Amino acid sequence: MKLVKLLAVATVSLGVVGASVVPASASATTVPKKLRGTYYAYQGYNSWDKLKISKHSAYIKIGSDKAFKLTTKAKSKAHRLSYKNYKSMHRFFLNSKIKVLADSPFPAGGMQLASRKIGKKHYKVIRGYQSATKWDFIKGKKVKHIYRTHLN
């Protein structure tokens, strides 16, 4: 009888320990913590583009255009937040269910979390890819330099 109780306790405790090791994956409507924050990209003449990512929403404001917001409960697919990570490309999309890429100002080629050394400090950046161009949104810092590169 003691052996049966011991086996039952061992099975339950191993099941609990085994279940806690498995990492939970984020749903398509939740953005991972490492990506959240406010990012800036310099456009010249003292103006910055702004990219803000939170748990269930994201928005981008480019130049003098109106801010474009993605939320989880938007009726339009162009405005619906749907996070998708493509590990083979090392890129992620915040509006992965959109059919017509021109309906959204978010980078059509996806985005990537990277690091950039500016001066003597390293900053987290979100690198956006569009056509043959990539540009960096710097986390939490307005830097007066355009970090844009042509890929060809």
TrEMBL record:
This protein's UniProt keywords:
Signal
Q: What is this protein called?
A: DUF5776 domain-containing protein
Provide the leader sequence positions. 1-28
